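Honest question from a wet-lab person: if I give you the sequences of every part of a complex, can you actually get the arrangement of the whole thing, not just the pieces? Trying it with mine:
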Amino acid sequence: MTTKPLLEVEGLKKYFPVKKGMLGRTVGHVKAVDDVSFYVNEGETLGIVGESGCGKSTTGRMLMRLLEPTEGKVVFDGKDLTSLTSDEMRKTRRDIQMVFQDPYASLNPRHTIEKILEEPLIVHGIDNPKERKKKVREFLEIVGLSAYHAKRYPHQFSGGQRQRIGIARALMTNPKLIIADEPVSALDVSIQSQVLNLMQDLQKEFNLTYIFIAHDLGVVRHISDRVGVMYLGRMVEMAASEQLYAKPLHPYTQALLSAVPVPDPDYQKEQILLAGDIPNPANPPSGCTFHTRCPHKMDICTKFAPQLVEQDSGHSVACHLYSDQVDNDIKQMEGSL
Amino acid sequence: MSEFVPKADGIAVMKVEKTVGPWREAWNGFKKSKVAVVGMCIVLFFILLAIFGPLIAQEGINDQVLKDRLLPPSSEYWLGTDDLGRDILSRIIYGARISLWVGFFSVIGSVVVGSALGIIAGYYGRWVDTIISRIFDIMLAFPSILLAIAIVSVLGPNLRNALIAIAVINVPNFGRLIRSKVLSIKEDEYITAAKGIGMKDARILVSHILPNSMAPVIVQGTLAIATAILEAAALGFLGLGAQAPMPEWGKMLADSKDFLHSAPWTMIFPGLAIMLTVLGFNLMGDGLRDALDPKMKS
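Yes, you can. This is the full assembly:
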């Protein structure tokens, strides 16, 4: 590894307590994110995919501490974000910005575009009013809008244009890392590619690092250098983009990839159909959480959860199918019990 | 203002500079409703009456001309005179000042206090919310006019204390309204976005949450002015609000109740004044509601 990771996440967990009864007793926990670890190198794009409810957005929000992690460490640029006071964290957000899913809800309807874009600068005390106004116009041009749009209100723009504004807002403070939480899933397919291309251009221009959260594998493949697949709060597979799409290891990833539509009507493909629904994260299955739907289920799967282990270089998977040392796994687990 | 602006793809498109802010848009919507505009005209009429009244009305509204007692409307006394020979028209004109003053300031008082409490309760939630909400519940458990009477009895019967009482009894209404609005707004993504930018709580409250929760308050406030005027009149009628010889409309009604049969004009005209003002505010409030918050329409 030549570059040092910009962001390192270790054992990140988020348990939401389930309260019941008059006294609000905690009767259990929804394990929205359960022991997730990964890293992102400077200048690269990490895609995180998974179906809805698998904890990918929760993970994104915890990285910025918009949600407080239950456990785990987030090291950004050498600083442990989880140990910062809320005021220090607030100031650190200058370097980590977020692009949101719904371009209709993420812009204050009562503010003009100028005010929306200016706000991050005001909050962090960057530039004087005149420079700020100039910068707003500059960034509007950069994201493909025009300077005269500054005086308009959000409702006068289309979804794609609004998402461009959302991206411009994230860029204003010149951040190092941008967490994009399903930035294109609310847009039309034709607009999606425009926004994705814009994001890629901006990445080159400003040397940005992206964490790109999405449920659309095609979109993630287009933009990501590396991809992590999440299932029920856990990271089940992680690999370089080409590797993952060429040779998916985890049965869940295989099923996901077989479900991606191919734009060729004559193409006959074998689709792996998963039975059943995603289990309730308040009461996850024992062992490997995927065993209830897995076509290759083994006995061990119901008993022990597999660890994320590197198979090829840079290709990690959490599945007993690939552990040569299943026995070792068992010993390890028994030892820890 | 319009000009040709070349677009990136080379096609010149007509750019029409028309930035309509949310408030301007609401005004355009408001104008469409005839009834609301009529309401606004009535309200404006009474406001102008209150401001310029002294120029129109006769001097000495409290001067008693005992030879002219209980005269019916005539060319000299347009709306007749009361039992002490005072000109009713002049007293009603001066009364507009008192009623509107009480209406506006009591509502401003309850909006300020209610909004502050409601925003804090809604935004911070948890035990802060529980305490504030329970206080509101306790206050709402009393019939409002009874609570007002109790407050005035403690503070002493005069117009200022009546105003304070009316402001106090309306606080929970505004507090709850704002609280519920804040609860929904704080889940909006632009609030998360504001936090993500690194904004402080205080700034989020003032610059994002407050402006977006104001629409229902303006509507409720307009309607509450009408109720406040009625409540002030009721307190005046009971002798707990304005004291003689103040030309307060409710007080005028109370003073004239003994002459209902012999001189009905002493009662009809102050009553009409109250009714018209309240009607004006209500019509205007309904129009505002339709313009500002179409979802609230029943």
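Two things worth pointing out. The longest strand of chain A covers residues 25-41. Residues 189-206 of chain A form the longest helix (18 residues).
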